[in-house]
């Protein structure tokens, strides 16, 4: 009898059964059980209105209940320039209880703002030109825009945590990042909406595009005036330059909220579903026992 025809002993048969692959148990995973559905309208409102409303609420509280601080306010530079329009940084970052209220608003604002970034990306990707392989620069701009949207979030966090009393230079750097990222985000949002081709699918989107374009044309010079007037104030110590900075800063806060709020026009067609998927064991490799 040849070796090929030898019977396999029971011990080897047991060993073979031990090493034989076993199919994994059927998974009981159901996508609906692990899905979290976000209301896009609430996300957009929380991501866009919270900082604007919270900031203006702090300013209103200052003028209504702490007017003595406004009357006696003096700048920390240029031998204490007097002004009845103190910068936003004092109302949200120095004076209490406004500071604690603002930090609470910021805590509620950041999570939906992160989700809002993904909603914006989803909006641009709905355009017919976004899937065009020759439109590679569109996806490059989209990636840069996504990065700057996140930078705008964390720059605002930095401005709020590192206030003027903590360190003026660090506070000013974060404010510069926030201001620059906001202006570039307005610009990229207008360009991406135009290049995506979504304006051609519905007249509503073209109206949205015109609103964004107008807000960029108006908002960009105002926000740049805020930074330029403050730099000029530090060099010249002119009272008018300091007042100009405060007024344009107040206006920029509102422009920031309004520009992002226009996405609410398309809220009915935007949604974000997050699934927590349990880990699925991989395939068990077949093991063979050589005789």
UniProtKB/TrEMBL annotation:
Entry GO CC: endoplasmic reticulum membrane; Golgi membrane
Looking at the record, the residues that make up the CWH43-like N-terminal domain are 40-266
Which stretches does the entry tag as region Disordered?
Answer: 1-25
Q: Which Pfam families match?
A: Frag1
Q: What transmembrane ranges does the database entry give? A: 42-64, 100-119, 140-162, 168-194, 214-234, 240-262
> What's the protein called, per UniProt?
Post-GPI attachment to proteins factor 2
Q: What spans are recorded as compositionally biased (Polar residues)?
A: 8-18
What is the superkingdom listed in this entry's lineage? Answer: Eukaryota
Q: Could you read off the lineage of the organism from its UniProt record? A: Eukaryota, Metazoa, Ecdysozoa, Nematoda, Chromadorea
Which keywords accompany this UniProt record? Membrane, Transmembrane, Transmembrane helix
Report the InterPro entries cross-referenced here. Answer: CWH43_N, PGAP2
Query: What Gene Ontology terms for biological process does this UniProt record contain?
Result: GPI anchor biosynthetic process
């Amino acid at each position: 009898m040849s070796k090929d025809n030898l019977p396999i002993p029971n011990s080897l048969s047991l060993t073979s059964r031990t090493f034989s692959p076993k199919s994994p148990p059927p998974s009981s995973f159901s996508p609906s059980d692990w899905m979290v559905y976000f209301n896009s309208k609430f996300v957009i409102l929380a991501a866009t209105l919270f900082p604007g409303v919270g900031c203006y609420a702090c300013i209103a509280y200052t003028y209504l209940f702490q007017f003595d601080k406004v009357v006696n306010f003096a700048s920390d530079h240029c031998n204490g320039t007097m002004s009845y329009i103190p910068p936003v940084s004092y109302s949200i970052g120095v004076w209490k209880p406004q500071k604690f209220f603002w930090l609470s608003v910021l805590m509620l604002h950041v999570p939906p703002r992160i989700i809002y970034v993904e909603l914006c990306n989803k909006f641009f990707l709905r355009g017919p030109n976004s899937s065009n392989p020759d439109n590679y620069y569109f996806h490059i701009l989209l990636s840069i825009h996504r990065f700057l949207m996140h930078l705008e979030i964390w720059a605002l966090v930095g401005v709020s945590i590192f206030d003027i009393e903590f360190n003026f230079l660090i506070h000013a750097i974060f404010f510069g990042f926030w201001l620059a990222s906001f202006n570039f985000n307005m610009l990229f949002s207008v360009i991406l909406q135009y290049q995506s081709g979504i304006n051609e699918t519905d007249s509503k989107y073209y109206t949205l595009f015109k609103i964004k374009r107008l807000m960029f044309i108006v908002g960009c010079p105002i926000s740049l005036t805020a930074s330029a007037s403050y730099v000029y104030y530090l060099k010249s110590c002119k009272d008018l330059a300091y007042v100009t900075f405060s007024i344009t800063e107040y206006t920029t806060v509102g422009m920031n909220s309004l520009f992002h709020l226009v996405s609410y026009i398309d809220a009915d067609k935007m949604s974000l579903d997050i699934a927590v998927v349990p880990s699925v064991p991989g395939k068990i490799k077949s093991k063979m026992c050589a005789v």
